[in-house]
Amino acid sequence: MTPLLAVAGLEAFYGASQVLKGIELEVGRGEAVGLVGRNGMGKSTLLRSLMGLVPDRRGSIRLDGRDIARAPPEAIARSGIAYVPEGRGIFGSLTVIENLVMAARPGCGGRRTWTLERVLALFPRLAERRRHGGQQLSGGEQQMLTIGRALMTNPELILVDEATEGLAPLVAQEIWRTLDVIRGEGAAVIVVDKDMRAIARLADRIVVLAKGEIVLAGRPAALAATPGLLERYVGI
Ligand SMILES: Nc1ncnc2c1ncn2[C@@H]1O[C@H](COP(=O)(O)OP(=O)(O)OP(=O)(O)O)[C@@H](O)[C@H]1O
Q1: What residues flank ligand 1, with Cβ below 6 Å?
Q2: CATH for 31-56+69-234, among 3.40.50.300, 1.20.120.530, 3.40.50.1000, 3.40.50.1820?
Q3: Which of 41, 51, 190 to mutate to test the pocket of ligand 1 (most atoms within 8 A of CB)?
Q4: What is the pLDDT of residue 230?
Q5: How far apart are CA 12 and CA 61, in angstroms?
Q6: Beta strands 5-14 and 17-27: pairing type?
Q7: pLDDT tens for residues 32-87?
Q8: Looking at ligand 1, which residue's alpha carbon is closest to its atom 17?
Q9: Residue nearest to atom 31 of ligand 1 (CA)
């Protein structure tokens, strides 16, 4: 069966500096992949490259068999990938509802798994603050809104960079719970985070990046079973 995402020989450059080197990665439908590695190893660049946001990229990226390697970000978004960037990107002057409604559109084949009602049900805190402006929200609520906005596009694949960075433990827990629900509804997820325990609970597979290359990949339990392996590449 064609994988949802198939990346082959992906390279990315910032000027003369090569940040990704020959990335090979396949992600199945509804699969959750944890992308980990030390700082500066290329995790964000990989997500940004998949989204078409790194102009100098080479190699092959296929979504459901369609070549999107050279497509612009807006076409990639329309073809079914949603991106939750590090540091968030909501409209501060718009309300929670306005932020969500602006992003709404059916997914591939007209799929409407995620409606406004369902997104608000997934995030009760957003439902309570539905008329609040984006700038009035806490960091955790902003992250929920960014994920909610991504869901409103009914993506096949959602890319989440630094899912819980800087969030209080209880709020982070809530984000992990929602990512699990999202995956349960059939979307594939690639998530970057520093919380290895939470990643191991969510992910079907963990992929480790070091210096722009995938140096390790496997089921969380398999990687955890080899003493010192993750410490070497992730620093835990
Ligand atoms: N816009 C840019 N221009 C030039 N170099 C960049 C740019 N963005 C990132 N880099 C460099 O590319 C390398 C990979 O960065 P990237 O942000 O992808 O790593 P990361 O694994 O996500 O790390 P972190 O956890 O610190 O975000 C780093 O050396 C970084 O300094």
Answers
A1: 14, 19, 37, 39-45
A2: 3.40.50.300
A3: 41
A4: 75
A5: 12
A6: antiparallel
A7: 999 999 999 999 999 999 999 999 999 999 999 999 999 999 999 999 999 999 87
A8: 44
A9: 40
